[in-house]
Amino acid sequence: MKLKKLITLEIAALLVVVLGFSAFTSSNNFSTIPAGYGIGDVAANINLMNVNGKMVSYSDYPNAKGFIVIFTCNTCPYAVASEDRIIALDKEFKSKGYPVIAINPNNPEVQPDDTFELMQQKAKEKGFTFPYLYDESKSVYKEYGATKTPHVYLLQKEGGKNVVKYIGAIDDNVRNGAAVKDRFLANAVNELLQGKEVSVKETKAIGCSVKV
Fold first, then answer.
1. Which of 20, 62, 88, 173 has its CA 20 to 30 A from that of 184?
2. Which residues are bridge partners to 151 per DSSP?
3. Which of 208, 211, 210, 189 is nearest to 200 (CA)?
4. CA 88 and chain centroid, separation
5. Would you state the pLDDT for residue 88?
C-alpha cells in the first residue's frame, strides 16, 4: 500500500513539473522570438506592399549594389526622430547604388496608428523618397530578427545574392540627429563603396520594441 502511494505521489510530482514547464514555455512564447540574420548571411528576397499600392522586391532593383533595409514605423518616437535622417540616407546613397527600403513590422491591432492608410499619410506628409513597405504577414521582420524600430540591415549584392554586412543602429544618437558623432550606417556603406570590409559590423539598435 505504501509503495503504491509513493508511486502515485511521484507521478503527481512529475505531472506538476511537466505542466509547469509547458506553461512557462507557452507564456514566454519562445517559438515567436526572432532568430534572425547574422553578418555574412544571405537575405531572402522580399515581396511587400508599398504605400503606393505596388509590390516591391529586391529584384526590382537590378542595378543596385545593395540595400539599406530599415525596419521602422509611424509611431515610435525613436523612429519619428530618425525620419529626416532616413530621407537623407536615401538621398546620399541611392544614386550610389544603395537605396533605402523601409519596412513597417508593427501590427495595427496592437498599435492602431500603424495602419497601412496611416503609413500612406506619413509617407506623403514627410515626402518619403523610398519605398515604405507593410510587413502584413509579420514574416519578414522575423526572418531578419528585427526587434526595434528603427533597426537597420545593410545588404550588399555578391554573386546575385544579398549578403548582410551591417546590423544595428543608424548612428550613435537615435534621439537627436543634431548631436550625432558617429554615423555607423553611413560609414559602413562608404566602406563598401570603397571596396573595403565593414569595420564596425554590429551595433545595438535602440528604439521601441516591434509591436506584434
1. 62
2. 71
3. 189
4. 19
5. 98
The candidate with the shortest Cα–Cα distance to 166, out of 114, 125, 206, 205, is: 205
SS3 content of the chain, % helix, strand, coil (to 5): 40, 20, 40
The residues, ordered by sequence, that sit 6+ positions from 172 with a Cβ below 8 Å of its Cβ are 180, 181, 182, 184, 203
pLDDT band at 34 (very low <50, low <70, confident <90, very high): low
Question: What percent of the chain shows pLDDT beyond 90?
Answer: 83
pTM of the model: 0.84
Report which of 188, 185, 193, 154 is spatially closest to residue 169, judged by C-alpha positions.
185
| 46-80 exposure pattern, b = at least 16 Cβ within 10 A, e = fewer | bebbbbeeeebebeebeebbbbbbbbbbbbbebbb
Predicted local distance difference test score (pLDDT) of residue 157: 98
φ/ψ of residue 148, rounded to 5:
-130, 160
Cell of 20: 509547469
Rounded distance, CA 70 to CA 63, Å? 20
pLDDT reported for residue 35: 78
What is the 8-class DSSP label of residue 55? E
What DSSP element (H or E) covers 116? Answer: helix 116-126
- In this structure, are residues 173 and 85 in contact, taking their beta carbons and an 8 Å threshold? no
Sort residue 64 into left (φ over 0), alpha (ψ -120 to 50) or beta: beta
